[in-house]
Each structure stands twice: as C-alpha cells, then as structure tokens.
Design a protein that fits this description.
mainly alpha, 2 domains, 10 helices, 2 strands, binds protoporphyrin IX containing FE
Length: 261
C-alpha cells in the first residue's frame, strides 16, 4: 500500500494515521483497533429502517448524538471524496470530525473517522444501485402484468368465469367458517409476514446481484516488489480478501438492509 507523508492535522493526518494506507505491523495494530470498534456495533441497530445517508446510523452506533449527526454526515462525505487524493480542501471537515470524537489526533480517533469514511460512498452506492435495479425489475413485472391483462376476449371470458367460481368458493368457504373475522385476521397477518420475508429475500438477492455485476469498489492499489504503485482488480471479491479485506462487511449489509426496508 502506498504510504502518505506524515501530517499533524486535516486529511493528511487522517491518511497517515489509518490502517488503510499503512503496511506491516502498523497496519496490523491499526486494523486491530478498527476490528474492535466494528465488534462493538450491533448490526441489528443498523438493520432498523432509516431514511437518508447510511453514515448517519453508523455514526449514531459509534456514539455520535443529535444534533451533531447532520454535520458529521456532511463532513464525512467531504473527507471520503478526498480520502484517496489527500485534497487539502477537506482539512477543515476532518478537523471538525476529530473534535466530535474527542479532539485527540491519535490512532483511536482516526479509526472512528476511518470507519465512517470507508463506509460512506461504497455503502451509499450499493443502496442506490440496488434501488435502481429493483425499480427496473418492478417496471418489467408491471409490463408483464399489463400484457397478461390484455388477452383475447375468450381468454377474458374464461378468466371472468373462473373469477366468478373463485368468488363463489370464497363465499361458501366463509359461510362454512364459525368465526370468520378471527380466521380472516389470522390469515391476513400470516400473509403479511410471509410477504414481508419474501420481499426481504428478494431485496437481498438483488443486493447480491449488484455486488456481483456492478460492485461499488472495482479495484484497489498496492505497491509491487519494485516499489511501483499498481492497481489490483477486486473482480469477484466485492469486499476484498486477505488481511486487508473489508472488516465492515456485515455492518455494510445491515446498513443496506435498513435503507431498503
Ligand atoms: C458496500 C459497502 C462496502 C464495500 C463494497 C467495501 C469494500 C471494501 C474493500 C474492497 C476493501 C479492501 C480494500 C483493499 O484491499 O485495499 C475495504 C476496506 C475497508 N473497509 Fe469496506 N466496504 C464497504 C463498507 C464498509 C463499511 C460499512 C465499513 C465500516 C463499518 C467499512 C470499513 C472498511 C475498512 C476500515 C477498510 C480498511 C481495512 C484495512 O485497512 O485493513 N467498509 N472495504
């Protein structure tokens, strides 16, 4: 991993103090701090339905309270845009984030900010791409349904007759029931539970499709044995692999689930 120059504040400090751009034992030490922080977050909290940017629930889970959340999300987005380049325009945003997390320019503070910054764009684009794909699927299903409704008159007549039959059956069914209201209520809530878990499964399989076909992170960078910085494809490994693999995978999936509910 190409290492940034040391810096005492701003985005330069963040890049020089996170695990992401460190190597060897320094990477391992910082990564351990990150993993401990991740382990302290309950994915169940992130899975709860929310509107807005996925950084907000994650920041709350890391101890940020209202009303700071809105500004934290805005500053994290700025820091995320400058994370790879080190553009100093992001310095004030990073310095504000340091104050939110206690004001010390140390590895623990950097780890808090790193989690938010790493989560920011990748999670937001996974949510966005999944939503786009789901609305494409809904449009296709709708068109299929439309086509099914505009069948030949014979077809329609047959459908009509079978609808009639269905209605009669239902009426007979209802007449036979002792406690129709009770039965109807149970039926409806069972149906709802089944529909919800079906919807949930459909949504999460669309997420998997996006991760397979259109992942948010396509490549990463490493230093080759000659000291050159090279791009390494992450094809088939949307969360990376090995000692640098994403430690936030489970939290990312929980945030995606919460956003799509
Ligand atoms: C869909 C969302 C996400 C995707 C696709 C993703 C993907 C990745 C990938 C591919 C890497 C490895 C980069 C490399 O090998 O150089 C990585 C690293 C990392 N990710 Fe994620 N990530 C996501 C969300 C998150 C979230 C939500 C968090 C925090 C809760 C997070 C925290 C991290 C951290 C801290 C690293 C650096 C690990 C290290 O330095 O060893 N990521 N991520």
């Amino acid at each position: 991993m190409p290492e940034p120059d040391p810096a005492s504040n701003g985005i330069g400090w963040l890049r020089a103090t996170v695990s992401r751009f460190a190597n060897g034992p320094v990477h391992a030490r910082r990564r351990a701090i990150v993993e401990e922080l991740v382990a302290g977050v309950d994915p169940g909290d992130l899975r709860r339905p929310y509107a807005g940017h996925p950084v907000a629930p994650l920041a709350r889970a890391l101890g940020v309270t209202e009303p700071a959340i809105v500004n934290v999300v805005a500053d994290v987005r700025v820091a995320a845009a400058a994370y790879q380049t080190g553009d100093t325009a992001a310095d004030p945003a990073v310095d504000r984030l340091v104050s939110v997390f206690g004001g010390r320019y140390d590895e623990a503070t950097a780890a808090h900010i790193q989690l938010l910054v790493q989560a920011c764009d990748a999670t937001a684009s996974l949510i966005e791409r999944t939503r786009t794909r789901m609305s494409g699927e809904r449009a296709r299903t709708h068109t299929r349904d439309e086509r099914a409704r505009t069948h030949t008159p014979d077809e329609r007549a047959r459908t009509h007759t079978s609808d009639e039959r269905a209605r009669t059956n239902t009426r007979d069914e209802r007449a036979r029931t002792h406690n129709p209201d009770e039965r109807a209520r149970t039926h409806t809530s069972d149906e709802r539970a089944r529909t919800n878990s079906r919807d949930e499964r459909a949504r999460m399989s669309t997420v998997d499709e996006v991760l397979r076909d259109d992942p948010p992170v396509l490549a990463t960078r490493r230093v080759d044995p000659d000291g050159n910085v090279v791009a390494v494809s992450l094809s088939g490994m949307p969360f990376g692999a090995g000692p640098r693999a994403c430690p936030g995978r489970e939290l990312a999936m929980a945030l995606v689930e919460g956003a799509l509910r």
